[in-house]
């Protein structure tokens, strides 16, 4: 009598389901983004896991059918064919397990990088936080789609006043960036939450930018607004890697909480997208503090972009 070999017990679907569970499990508490608990930048990994799970389910069914198949163990040729099929199924199973294990490592790397990214772009504890919704990401991606982001016509130098020009050939590229952070919408999102560790100023509070002046009111509320510490025009024109980011990561940089602060209407109008050193009659001590803050934020944004590019590579796109 010739011995037949069954294909290895399947369990592939269960193994790959564990990968999907890892993808949908909450990230560490300190890194959980607002509006969701998974690592959204691992969407390509999700697709890979779904594909492997479908293959695993199909292979499970083939293995079960093979193992249930009767074989005449007195027929050497039949047993040999049966065993050859078992070897083939086992090889497929081992291949899928290897892919699942590799994907599991990839998932862990994506989630770890997402944690680092969230920590890098966050403001101070208790500050406003930001995570774009899928609808916002898709709309932004649609506005970017017609652009050749591999050949952005970047300016070579700032204007004499220190601001970076995003007009002319760069305007079609900058417009979606600017429109992704419209001041009124951002102000509505932030509400009264702190920015960079500072609460929203109240009417009558001293204006830190201008000695002797106070925060004015408008329609019963303090006339202040969220201001980008590093202007969006500078990010779009000079930040290495920014245009290689996927739409979600671009939005995270555009609206990074670490890059926001409260400014009075007067200070915001005086600064606009120029260096604080160009502001007339601003408090010199405040200007120096702003220059130091700007350097800190620049470093954080550059670190975040580097991490995002690593994450995109780990996620397969």
Give a short account of the largest sheet: 2 strands, antiparallel
Q: Taking strands numbered 1, 2, ... along the chain, how are they ordered across the largest sheet?
A: 1-2
Strand content: under 5%
Helix count, DSSP H or I runs of 4 or more residues: 10
Can you count the beta strands? 4
The percent range for helix content is 40-55%
Low-confidence stretches: 19-41
Global geometry: elongated
InterPro entries: TAT_signal (IPR006311)
Coiled coil: 49-106
Signal peptide: 1-31
Keywords: Coiled coil, Signal
Structure description:
The protein is mainly alpha-helical and 317 residues long. The protein has 2 domains: 12-121; 134-315, no CATH class. It is 53% helix and 4% strand. It contains 10 helices and 4 strands, in the order ααααααβββααβαα. The chain has helices at residues 12-24, 43-68, 76-121, 134-144, 171-179, 183-190, 232-238, 247-254, 265-271, 284-315, and strands at residues 217-218, 221-222, 224-228, 260-264. The strands form 2 sheets. Strands 1-2 form a two-stranded antiparallel sheet. It has a two-stranded antiparallel sheet with strand order 3-4. The longest helix has 46 residues, at 76-121. The two termini are 54 Å apart. Mean pLDDT is 84; it is low at 19-41.
